[in-house]
User: Which sequence fits this backbone?
């Protein structure tokens, strides 16, 4: 039966895959960083202080002081292709798209910044994606990462008359393919060093300790990743948590304190890796690779190496393709 002449075009149904990362400012400038931080730090999942208390602090103090400092940090790692986080996320998206061989429409979004989750979901639905996998690129679950990505996706659906079917990528902190990818990546990077590290430190992004007490599984997921990776590599790993912010007590031990203490106690050569980050970003390239080296050497260390994230490496993409294909099984 032919459709009426005035019938709107209906795109061919297809499967969509939306990779979602944290986000980044559009430029390494104070105004751009301010816009980004305003959105990021206004998220109730990220800062759980009541808005009546938090917003005056955010708008009156933090957004008038922190953007300029953060912009200088971003400038240290910014590339001709833009933010490292955006560059590597786009590279992952393109690589996965090629690997799916046309079986799915693969796109990416940022929880904070551009392109937004809601805009990408709307675009995918308009393109005919009636089945969509939301894939937050966080191996370890936290309400402040995976949780807020899914909140944003569900909020976008409430504005649609006709919802696509939705699946979500679960945390993969203990998945054997993830642990194996980390092992191969770390061992490959270590083999390229001109020294043998006394200690291997793995640094996860920190969270307020209160989140653990409230039932967030993030700390447990990090510890399990570390234990499984240690067993797979057959060596002890030193676990730490980075990026403390504010006066609240955060998960410990802190990365900066840890690497300085290692140097002071005679462990002069270390390598550090950040398994909770799917791609390199400000927190790895500036906070660990630059600041971490300075802190370690000032405390008496002699040899320091930062080992890159999985990014769009072959082992990283093999892992990502495996966990993604598992979740779209039956659709693709």
Assistant:
């Amino acid at each position: 039966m032919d459709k009426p002449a005035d019938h709107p075009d209906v795109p061919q149904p297809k499967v969509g895959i939306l990779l979602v990362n944290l986000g980044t400012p559009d430029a390494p400038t104070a105004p751009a960083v301010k816009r980004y931080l305003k959105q990021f730090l206004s998220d109730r999942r990220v800062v759980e202080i009541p808005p009546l208390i938090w917003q005056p602090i955010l708008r009156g103090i933090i957004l008038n002081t922190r953007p300029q400092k953060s912009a200088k940090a971003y400038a240290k790692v910014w590339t001709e292709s833009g933010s490292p986080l955006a560059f590597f996320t786009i590279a992952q998206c393109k690589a996965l798209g090629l690997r799916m061989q046309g079986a799915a429409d693969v796109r990416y979004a940022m929880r904070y910044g551009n392109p937004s989750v809601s805009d990408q979901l709307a675009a995918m639905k308009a393109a005919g994606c009636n089945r969509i996998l939301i894939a937050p690129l966080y191996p370890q679950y936290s309400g402040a990462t995976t949780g807020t990505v899914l909140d944003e996706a569900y909020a976008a659906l409430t504005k649609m008359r006709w919802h696509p079917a939705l699946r979500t990528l679960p945390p993969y902190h203990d998945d054997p393919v993830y642990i194996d990818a980390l092992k191969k990546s770390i061992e490959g990077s270590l083999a390229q060093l001109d020294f043998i590290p006394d200690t291997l430190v793995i640094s996860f992004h920190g969270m307020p300790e209160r989140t653990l007490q409230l039932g967030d599984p993030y700390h447990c997921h990090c510890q399990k990743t570390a234990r499984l990776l240690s067993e797979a590599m057959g060596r002890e790993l030193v676990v730490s948590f980075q990026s403390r912010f504010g006066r609240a007590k955060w998960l410990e031990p802190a990365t900066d304190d840890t690497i300085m203490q290692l140097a002071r106690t005679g462990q002069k050569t270390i390598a550090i890796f950040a398994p909770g980050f799917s791609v390199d970003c400000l927190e790895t390239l500036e906070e660990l690779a630059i600041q971490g080296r300075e802190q370690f050497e000032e405390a008496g260390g002699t040899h320091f190496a930062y080992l890159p994230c999985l990014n769009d490496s072959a082992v990283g993409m093999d892992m990502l393709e495996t966990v993604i294909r598992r979740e779209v099984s039956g659709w693709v």
Notes: DSSP finds twelve helices and eight strands in the chain. Strands lie at 14-23, 105-112, 129-136, 165-168, 199-205, 238-242, 269-273, 303-306. The chain has a mean pLDDT of 96.
